[in-house]
Write a structure and sequence with these properties.
Length: about 1200
């Protein structure tokens, strides 16, 4: 049992499950009337766990204040990372009252509900899963079990109702009770529901919702008594509508305050939408809105899972905003019983809506009741568990305790005594207790006066019964125990409803009575034995004394005590194996007591014996005489016996003298004997004389194999010749000839003359190797000296041939142009006589008339055919011009007509006709093994042609493969199968699409390969052809060029930049070398020598700069120039359009103040100075110097 408890007292539980779905239509409906699923009065309580299945995130809790209306991004909650589930969540069941010593679950219901509209638009759904199934993982388990609903309360899809809600319920009590520990994690998966968003039927706002809850009912002897009733159904409420529905079947207390808690389990679309209320119709007819912490009067359904006004967080994920799912336990305010009155059994509930739609599917009540209770009403032996012997007095006791909360009135306790006991007496009864016993009905009743069994009162009622004696348990019923149960009827002082309860023989570990019969054990009495001694009834009598036999059969043994029905097995007469008249009757007796015990077997043996000899039935044969060759058959005699029904008569014949002679005496004896060995005898003599077969000689016929070596003939004498005699003999040819087949012989035989004497004649047989028919010769007798009559004078000898010859026919291969095929038949072994065989041709893959001419005839083999001789069969072969496989036909031998053993070792020749048409020049070939097309041609066409006729046609596969041309850039990969009918000159075209690109490129090629010819006779003469694609893009204007072939820079510019550009796309790219060269500008004074390589990827318009460093000096000089040359182009696909550019360097040194000037433009000298000197000076450096004239 599982131990749980409750802290609630005098409480009414109202269990509500509500399905709230966002709709904008305005009508209310009860889709399924609410009816009780559970209705019991127990000392117990109720609790729940629950969680939602749709949220804003699959694993994270959602704690915001968002609502579910108009949302289209809701996802499944899924915590388990299990690929077999599409949603999952968990809730933990904790011990609701750990202070109680013992608790046990009595009922557990799993409900699941969701909006379940088909996928479409913003709606998504796991329609591959059944709505009436979920996966459940119980505490202590790591695997799911799929459970199927006991009932689907309602399914909106069946009538396309709003957003298609459904509600399913499953009784999981047995699963919970079976757990060693019911507390822990309950995990539910695969609740089918719409996710994403939802547009209801008929339009309006949309939202999705789904979840699950488990309602647990438990009991404890320490809890108050409650009437717990759980109803389920489905009532739907739309926006702006009101739905009333009734629940009928609960019971409130008759007096005093009625306290109530509510359990809520629901899915609901919105937290922030208000105007929804849950109301109860008061006893005065007015309506009262219900509210509780977290649930206001005008927003009762607020997407919350709570217990006693606080969030219930023992779940995963633990969202405080479940976005449409509610589960809660809270106290109902019922002042002065204004909502639930005393003795109330039904009420009407109302659900209203201002802005949203929802549905209710679960309503229940748990009401404390005033109820008297006898609890377990234990009924046991005193002392408990006592075992009694037959005949012993047993004391039984009933433990009476009022464990309820109401005084018991009108208590009567009755029991009917079982047949195994008789009433004896009562022990002194407690005050206020009396009894009656009806011996006819065996009913024992106890009456308890009012006031003696008020709340908490206890006492015992003891009474005595006598266990019946041992013969009852041996003869009538072998009871190892008897059961007894009492029934109590009573009512309460406050609760006057009549009640009935049965006593309990056992209680469970929590102290609850099982209300089962009390079992009292009885010791079984010992088994009874036979009183009559062994062999006391055995008797021996004569086999023909019927009266003595009847007397012996009437005897019967007796038992020690009690009166049992004896089971006699009268044995059939068992004759002595040696005498059926003598034997025994074996009778056996057993008896079976009521316990099923079978007694030892008592055995009686009646023995019958026989002492009288049998007598013959017929007239006995007298002595007589007979000729030796006409002996009469013995007569058949029978006998009779007074006991033996079949006495046996034995016959014996003996001889005086030689019984094979013509004169002797036959002695015949008949003996009659019964099975007991009593016998009588009769003897007859027959005297045999010589009037039988004639006296004389005879010779026998014989048959021998030719390899026997000798043939032995026997000559027999009948009669007697005194002094003996002789007889002559000689051989004579028949079909066997001497000396080839046997050795001829003549001679004489000497007999002593005794009766029955024999002599032999031996003839040598010649062994040859010739196959032949059986042959015959003879031996003739002729008189000699004193020869008696020769009655049979010729003995025939037959020689059976032991040689065998065989015929075989050889397989051959011939060219179809040979004209005639000669098939050879060979004989192995020599054959003496001529013989014939038949032959005929049989079609194989070669067909008569087309490939050869059919033959059918006979071969005549001559006589004396020698080993290895042959005969030929000629078959005409037809030469056609078809290329075909080797074809065959058969020549079959049959029907040997021969004397002697001739057989076939090989009766069938296979003739293969080898085709001569698949020669050089036949087969398939490309008309051209190299096809060249411009890339603008569209396709490259390859013609495959057949030379020669091919029987039955054939197929050949083709496919393209890259070489320098690559698919799909240059051409389109093409493959397929050509199907030839097999006609000479037949051809097919393979068209390969060619792509026209803008790349400048080399001529490129690809291959077309032929393979997989379905007929191996067809030669693949050219298995590959090449397709050449010529480029059409290298036109005038393409190539590389300087953007400017003359670049002028100031010498202070630092660098001179030359840009080289590509016109046209060049496949694979290329490189281009560049280098500077002096002209009037000289490196390194005027510029820095520069060289390198430009690498182009090949893209039209691609350009690169060549930077040449410029030297800024202080020389005044003229504009100077240098060259940049292009060379070394790595591709031949394009050219260098401008291979050279000029770089012009302008001087920046001839500035103001530079140049030549007189140091003084006015020179004054004395005329006596001799000369006047004018000094000319240069300002600035001038490259190369210069001259200046003066005058």
């Amino acid at each position: 049992m599982h131990k749980i408890t409750s802290t609630k007292q005098l409480t009414l539980w109202i269990v509500l499950g509500l399905l709230f779905l966002s709709f904008q239509e305005t009508h209310a409906q009860v889709k399924k009337v609410f009816t009780p699923r559970y209705d019991e009065t127990i000392k117990g309580d109720v609790t729940i766990i629950a969680n939602n299945m749709l949220s804003a995130d699959a694993t994270l809790p959602f704690n915001g204040n968002a609502d579910n209306q108009d949302s289209n991004d809701r996802v499944y909650v899924d915590i388990d990372s299990d690929p077999s589930t599409f949603n999952s969540s968990r809730a933990t069941l904790n011990d609701p009252a750990p202070s109680l010593a013992c608790k046990e679950f009595v009922k557990a219901y799993l409900y699941w509900a969701a909006s379940d509209k088909e996928a479409g638009g913003v709606s998504q759904n796991a329609d591959s899963w059944n709505h009436n199934q979920v996966k459940l993982m119980l505490p202590g388990s790591s695997t799911y079990t799929t459970v199927t609903a006991d009932e689907v309360l309602y399914r909106g899809r069946d009538e396309h109702f709003h957003n298609d809600p459904y509600i399913s319920v499953k009784d999981i009590t047995s699963d919970v009770v079976a757990l060693s520990n019911p507390y822990g994690d309950y995990q539910v998966a695969n609740v089918q529901a719409t996710y994403g968003g939802l547009q209801p039927h008929g339009g309006g706002n949309y939202g999705v919702a789904g979840g699950w809850q488990i309602v647990f009912v438990y009991q404890s002897t320490e809890l108050l008594t409650r009437n717990i009733t759980i109803f389920d159904g489905y009532a739907h409420v739309d926006n702006g509508a009101t739905t009333d529905f009734e629940v009928d079947g609960f019971l409130s207390i008759p007096t005093g305050p009625v306290k109530a808690d509510i359990i809520l389990g629901s899915i609901e679309g919105d937290r922030v939408l208000s105007g929804d209320s849950f109301q109860i119709k008061k006893p005065d007819g007015n309506w009262q809105k219900i509210s509780t912490p977290l649930r206001g009067q005008d927003n009762f359904f607020s997407s919350t899972i709570s217990i006693d006004g606080a969030h219930f967080m023992d779940r995963l994920p633990a969202s405080t905003n479940t976005l449409g799912y509610d589960a809660s336990i809270f106290e109902l305010s019922n002042p002065s019983n204004s909502l639930i009155a005393n003795n109330q059994t039904s009420t009407t509930l109302r659900a209203t809506s201002g802005q949203e739609s929802y549905g209710l599917y679960l309503v229940g009540f748990s009401i404390e009741v005033y109820e008297p209770s006898l609890g377990a009403l234990e009924f046991t032996t005193s002392p408990a568990n006592t075992t009694y012997d037959p005949g012993e007095t047993a004391t039984l006791t009933m433990s009476i305790e009022n464990s309820g909360n109401d005084n018991i009135r009108n208590l009567e306790i009755s029991t009917v005594l079982p047949v195994e006991v008789e009433f004896n007496s009562t022990e002194p009864l407690p005050a206020g207790v009396t009894h009656t016993f009806d011996s006819g009905t065996r009913e024992l009743k106890f009456f308890v006066e009012d006031g003696y069994i008020d709340t908490g009162d206890t006492f015992n009622i003891d009474f005595n019964v006598d266990v019946l004696g041992q013969c009852y348990f041996l003869e009538t019923a072998c009871s190892a125990n008897f059961s007894i149960q009492a029934t109590a009827t009573f009512n309460g002082e406050i609760n006057t409803t009549p009640q009935t309860t049965n006593s309990s023989g056992t209680v469970d570990e929590c102290g609850f009575g099982n209300h089962d019969p009390s079992i009292v054990d009885i010791n079984q009495p010992d088994q009874v034995n036979w009183e009559t001694g062994n062999n006391d009834l055995n008797v021996t009598i004569a086999c023909d004394d019927a009266d003595a036999l009847a007397s012996a059969q009437a005897l019967e043994p007796t038992t020690e005590f009690c009166d049992f029905t004896l089971n006699k097995v009268s044995g059939a007469f068992v004759p002595d194996p040696d005498c059926e008249a003598e034997g025994t009757y074996t009778n056996t007796w057993t008896f079976t007591d009521a316990c099923g015990r079978v007694s030892d077997t008592f055995t009686q043996v009646i023995t019958l014996i026989d002492t009288t000899a049998p007598s013959f039935n017929e007239t006995l044969p007298a002595d007589t005489v007979a000729a030796y060759d006409n002996i009469p058959s013995p007569e058949t005699l029978t006998a009779a016996d007074s006991c033996d029904s079949n006495p046996q008569v034995q016959f014996q014949e003996t001889y005086i003298g030689d019984e094979t002679s013509t004169t002797y005496t036959i002695v015949r004896t008949w003996t009659a004997e019964d099975c007991a060995g009593n016998s009588i005898e009769h003897i007859q003599q027959i005297f045999v004389t010589e009037n039988g077969d004639p006296i004389g000689l005879s010779i026998d016929d014989i048959t021998v194999d030719e390899d026997a070596g000798k043939a032995t003939f026997t000559v027999t004498h009948v009669g007697e010749v005194q002094g003996g005699f002789t007889v002559n003999y000689a051989s004579a040819d028949g079909t066997a000839l001497a000396p080839a087949d046997y050795t001829s012989i003549t001679g004489g035989l000497s007999f002593s003359g005794d009766h029955g004497e024999t002599k032999v004649i031996e003839v040598d047989i010649i062994e040859d190797i010739i196959t032949e028919d059986q042959e015959a010769f003879s031996i003739s007798l002729s008189p000699g000296t004193d020869t008696p009559a020769i009655n049979v004078g010729v003995g025939n000898g037959t020689i059976i041939d032991n040689d065998a010859s065989t015929l075989s026919i050889a397989d051959i291969d011939v060219n179809e142009a040979i004209g005639n095929a000669t098939v050879v038949v060979t004989l192995t072994g020599a054959v003496q006589e001529a013989f014939t065989i038949d032959y005929a041709s049989i079609d194989g893959s070669a067909i008569a008339g087309d490939d050869y001419n059919a033959v059918s005839s006979q071969i005549n083999w001559p006589a004396n055919a020698t080993n290895g001789s042959t005969q030929n069969i000629i078959v005409p072969i037809n030469d056609d011009n078809l290329i075909e496989f080797t074809e065959n036909f058969l020549v079959e031998l049959s029907n040997i007509l021969a004397a002697g053993d001739i057989s076939f070792t090989d009766s069938q020749a296979n003739v293969n006709i080898l085709d001569n048409d698949a020669g050089v020049g036949t087969g398939i070939s490309f008309d051209a093994t190299s096809v060249t097309v411009d890339e603008a041609a569209g396709t490259a066409d390859f013609v495959v042609r057949l030379n020669g006729n091919v029987q039955g046609g054939f197929t050949v596969d083709y496919t393209t493969t890259d070489n320098s041309a690559a698919a799909p850039g240059d051409y389109i990969t093409t493959s397929g199968t050509l199907t030839f009918t097999g006609n000479d000159g037949e051809f097919y075209t393979i068209s390969v699409p060619v792509n026209d690109d803008s790349l400048i490129e080399d001529t490129e090629d690809f291959y077309v390969d032929l393979s997989n010819i379905s007929n191996i006779l067809v030669l693949n003469n050219t298995p590959q052809a090449t397709g050449n694609i010529t480029d059409n893009d290298a036109v005038s204007g393409t190539g590389v060029s300087f953007d400017a072939t003359s670049v002028t820079v100031d010498e202070a510019a630092g660098v001179a930049t030359f840009t080289v550009s590509l016109t046209g796309d060049v496949q694979g790219g290329f490189t281009l070398d560049y280098a500077t060269a002096d002209n009037s500008a000289v490196e390194p004074g005027d510029y820095t020598s520069t060289s390198g390589t430009l690498t182009f990827s090949g893209t039209d318009g691609e350009s690169y700069d060549i930077d040449v460093p410029i030297i800024d000096d202080s020389l005044i000089e003229s504009t100077e120039d240098f060259f940049v040359n292009l060379s070394g182009l790595s591709t031949t696909l394009i050219g260098i359009n401008t291979p050279q550019a000029t770089g012009n360097i302008t001087d920046n040194d001839a500035v103001s103040g530079t140049g030549v000037s007189f140091d003084a433009t006015s020179v004054t000298v004395d005329e006596a100075a001799g000369v006047a000197t004018f000094t000319v000076s240069l300002s600035g450096n001038v490259q190369g110097g210069f001259t200046l004239d003066y005058a």
